[in-house]
Amino acid sequence: MTGISIEASGLAKRIGDVHAVRDATFVAHGGRVTGFLGPNGAGKSTTLRMLLGLTRPDAGNALIGGTRYRDLADPSGTVGAVLDVAAAHPAMTARGHLGSFCALGGHHSRRVDAVAELTGISEYLDRRVGSFSTGMRQRLALATALLGDPDVLVLDEPSNGLDPAGIVWLRIFLREFAARGGTVLLSSHVLTELQHGIDDLVLIDRGRVAWTGPLAQFTERGESLEAAFLELTAGAEGARA
Question: According to the model, what pLDDT value does residue 222 have?
Fold first, then answer.
């Protein structure tokens, strides 16, 4: 893997009368796992959608390895993304779903079995997606993101629905992906899990990046990520009161 960085510079997006994102600037470095954290409605999903070219920013730039997502020569071979675990049609088998995305991305069909093995869903490939638990849908979504053997992963709440063993598996998988030079940007509400699984942190609140840097520096504010997060966001609430 080549250590591609994700760079957001001055990103802004207004949705109706709401400033969903305001001047968001941060970097997610190659070879590291970066957590993207914030309260509900803080602008996390909108920012991720702008990074992936699904939402056009009103201002600023979102670059992956110095290039906008839509200008990448091989988008799904560069970036694997999980934004919606409900994307797979319930009537399709997992094999059919993965095969369709292989064809759309121009990837070899052998990748279906390879990513199924990576994500632990090989024995479920011929089952219909509608019979999957939320945790199995999460694994299928990650398998879909891995079809192009990407250098970058952008994941929105990837541990939702996973059992404790699945959460540990995901943490180890992402750490190993980063150790090979991959770039991981993941959004999550599970603060205790983030504390064990990330190197760097981007904290967004009310559309603005309130803090960015190594996790170890952020947790100097408190005994844990949760304590430091609550201290900072409580202070922000007090300032707005």
Answer: 63
pLDDT given for residue 221 in this prediction: 66
- Average pLDDT, stretch 133-146? 94
Distance CA 88, CA 112 (A): 15
Task: Tell me the CA distances in angstroms from 87 to 66, 81, 137, one per residue in order.
Answer: 28, 12, 9
Question: By residue range, what is the domain housing residue 154?
Answer: 6-240
Q: What is the arrangement of strands in the sheet containing 208-214, beginning at the earlier edge strand?
A: 79-82, 152-156, 183-187, 33-37, 200-205, 208-214
Q: What is the number of domains present in the chain?
A: 1
Reported pTM: 0.91
Q: Cα-flanking dihedrals φ and ψ of residue 19, to 5°?
A: -85, 90
**pLDDT tens sequence across 61-111:** 999 999 999 999 999 999 999 998 767 899 999 999 999 999 999 999 999
User: Do the domain assignments include residue 106?
Assistant: yes
Residue 114: inside a domain: yes
157: domain CATH number?
3.40.50.300
Query: Do the domain assignments include residue 1?
Result: no
The answer to whether residue 77 is domain-embedded is yes
